[in-house]
Amino acid sequence: MLLHQYWREIEGMLIEERFRVGGMLRADPDTLFAVEPLQPGAYDFPLAVRFMRSDSEPLLDRYTRAMFVTHPNLLPCVSVGRCSIAGAEFVYAVLERAETTLADIEREHALRLDEASELGQQLISALSCLHQRKLIYCNLDPTTVARVGKTWKLSEFSQIRIAGAEYANETRRLLAVSAGIAPEAWAGIVSPAWDAWSLSWLLCCAVEERGQSPREQASARAPFHPKKRLPLARLVDECLKASISERAGLARIGAILESAAPPAPKPALPSVEPAPELKPPPVAATRQASNRRTWSAPFRPRTVVVALAVIAAIVGAVILLPGRGKSSAAVKTVSRPALSQHSAAKPAPPPDVNPAPVAADSPEGLLQRWAAALRSGDVAGQMACYSRTVYLFYGEGPISVSDVRRRREQDLARLGKPLHLEIANVTMRTRSPSSVVVTFDETWQFQGPETRSGGMKVQLSMRKTDEGWRISAETKLQTYRGTGENPQA
């Protein structure tokens, strides 16, 4: 939590000449301030800024890694950096402004099982995305899970780490912060099993009336005894195991939640009011009616019964006799005819003979220039595609564009121009009018002292700068195949 003495210094300050800090939104457990972009309409969601003391932990590196991972269940981080406030050094992160947190909701009421199941499935999707990039969240807690509309999002990335087993000095102290920390934190082992433990603990607590704060639970480290409800019992039995090798993973948690979710309620049948009971009129009224002469036929219950019987007989004959069903009195059910196997699908329109040219100063144009410069070995042309600071470059960052140049020149001197370098399956996701994430498959082949060839999935983050669109991050998402070292990484 940020000390009160810094609050006056923060309100109204400018960040990167792009954002102006507003009033404080939250003071506990971390300090959040509202922030507005100086360029109106630059983002299609409200923003907040989090300030963290820059001590011994690499907070800037962790938030930088998270900034270049895009997923619907991760709170978008649009900018990170360092700043000085009243002589003290801070790391700041500008993020989407959340509406509430899981901790806020738990203070009011426990979640229903269907609500906990939806929460778990969304968090599994976010954690799986991080695990594919060898990143472990290490920070699942009701205060670090936010909600925007109906979407749950991981929101606090100060503890995100690359999977490994050398973090004991960092992770041991976390055991005193939250009971949701996996027991292997004492040994410094960081793996997807950590997040599986924490998620199971989070879901069990979300539906239980515990009555203790996370810090009180952590200090007690008491065994967890959920109510005898099947989904919770299965999570505890299979996921809250001290042994990593015996602990169930995210896929199993998802299966447990899916089987435990209550069935959707059946639609209620429309209520039919019973017909009013016919009571014979009083004797006096009957006599009075019989003495009155009118042109209408008198009420005859027996006649109505006979008429109904005749109608029923006619309808039954129409239904039972085949070939007689073409009467206009028959009821027809009209349904959409199925497409037969002989039905021809409507042909797709032919491609444009002269497609519209791609604007040079656009994400598409930048991608084309970057790929052409790589194929031709034009290092200067490649550098013209990068921003002055590259925040993430194949696991390193932030680094300057001169460092990128040095690596590209070394590759060119060692390998020469590529014999083959192609990109395919391009996907572009717009995060804001000035930020785009591009994902594609890259295949390459270099013929030098030893042949290097392979394929991988690459992600480029692009930003709109004063000089135009530039690449601000480049990273490998997945390796499909490879012979020799990847020259691009």
Report on this model:
With 489 residues, the protein is of the alpha+beta class. The chain has three domains: 4-96, Phosphorylase Kinase, domain 1 (2-Layer Sandwich); 100-260, Transferase(Phosphotransferase) domain 1 (Transferase(Phosphotransferase), domain 1, Orthogonal Bundle); 363-483, Nuclear Transport Factor 2, Chain: A, CATH 3.10.450. The chain has 14 helices and 18 strands. A hairpin with a 3-residue loop joins strand 1 (14-15) and strand 2 (19-26). Helix 4 packs antiparallel against helix 9 and helix 8 (230-239) runs antiparallel to helix 9 (250-260). The longest helix has 20 residues, at 113-132. The chain is globular and about 60 Å long.
Question: Which features would summarize this protein structure in a list?
Answer:
about 500 residues, Phosphorylase Kinase, domain 1, Transferase(Phosphotransferase), domain 1, Nuclear Transport Factor 2, Chain: A, 6-stranded antiparallel beta sheet, 5-stranded mixed beta sheet, about 30% helix
